[in-house]
């Protein structure tokens, strides 16, 4: 079985790449049939992934390596690795990716670039699958950059809109900032450890090799995760990524791009565990991001922007979990979040498809008009709010329990506060969208089956995905990810987190259903806080006034330097060269050519004179000879 899995693992990432190639070259001929090519390839990848995961569940590690770059006595390898971490990501990416491809068939129907969209989806899935199966950091970096390029293509897919084009550039540039740190981290890690292979970077290795440079490398590597997983302070690209088609938002926020950063930190968990100071930085950034994202989401009125800041907050939860040592809990939350967040985004897409607006202030009363969308969306909201027995309850509670039991009171308190805010703003969204009176001028309608069937499947996982890590299954998930890890259920903390979530839901119900005038009164009472949330803590304005302006000044300075100094030197050299060439031309024309022409003129004159004596008459020559002989004789006798 392991041998078969070693063969099959090589095909998993390349099937979506085949779909990309087919749709790029034959998309015009295929038309909307191109979607089925991508769906078939992604589904086959899912089936193969399940076959590869099966032996991993039994404790096997599947690894296939090829020597890529040989240097000295070593070699940099290219290959595929399927261990518990990779198995989780394989399941998440292939399952959710296939459902999003299916949903996109209905959502993108009629788009003039339909086949190109599905080509990009195939390339995106290939990049992410290549990333999660990578055997070393260099290989991850290559696929990491491919994921970034794909996000640029898809976020700016409707590039005729300036906002979409700018959002794509913003995502690309912001991620490059983090990627510079990532690249430096890889170099430092290789310098300090002599390897970048994951199978070598184990707990035992870092226990015996504790150089300070490795801790510094961990911080630089974390920069890559900060950018990719939209952590403070590089989170600003993710809300603008909503300019892409909604299925892209679901793919980026649930199964692919943002999950890559968390996966990277989890992969390097032995490094952070060996260097507590680096792990503390990870925990602080994650906790800050969790609270910040939840705070900003409170005032957002665009349904996709609420979900975007929700994603930022939940990613902060995962990063904070790994930072405090709860790696298995962080990965557990990554898996559960992937399913209910994909459901939330696809549900939001269904709402937008049915109403034609993204502004929640123009919605309301959609429960009757869109029952399938409403029920599945409600289930996902209960999951992210942490209501038992939905998936988010078990994973969120696992993080809170670890923070409490391992003496991280500040992290515990802030994450619990973020959990309260999460339940509040998510049910604010539900009540504004699906309940109350209709506030917009539209005739809402339910989405077609090709869009609602994926919602129902994801709704099932919004419940079922949490049970593998629950006490009912003896925390099987945690034992699978980290064998031997002791996990204990704390029912008191479960009760506390449930009460906190239910209290938040009650507050949202009172403010938006019982007393709909209450939000306006509250915002007036806490106007500075409301303005801070509404303006996203002014991050865009601060970056615009500092970083952007600095780079604009730097770009302008470099332009002037290039124009005045570099181009000036080049143009000056050209002018000197022109002057020298003119002098050279004069010398060549009047001295060199003059001398040559003078010799020629003298030769012509001499030849003209001598030609007078060359008459061609024989007796003239005899006369000259006779005169010459006489002159010789005269000279001799004298």
Automatic annotation (TrEMBL):
Pfam families: Proton_antipo_M, Proton_antipo_N
Upper taxonomic lineage: Bacteria, Pseudomonadati, Candidatus Omnitrophota, Candidatus Abzuiibacterium
Topological relation to the membrane, as annotated: Multi-pass membrane protein
GO cellular component terms given for this protein: endomembrane system; membrane
Family annotation (InterPro entries): NADHpl_OxRdtase_5_subgr, ND/Mrp_TM, NU5C-like, Proton_antipo_N
UniProt protein name: NADH-quinone oxidoreductase subunit L
Molecular function, one GO term: NADH dehydrogenase (ubiquinone) activity
Residue ranges of domain NADH-Ubiquinone oxidoreductase (complex I) chain 5 N-terminal in the record: 68-118
Domain NADH:quinone oxidoreductase/Mrp antiporter transmembrane span(s) in chain numbering: 134-422
Coiled-coil regions, chain positions: none
Assigned keywords, A-Z: Membrane, Transmembrane, Transmembrane helix
GO biological process: ATP synthesis coupled electron transport; electron transport coupled proton transport
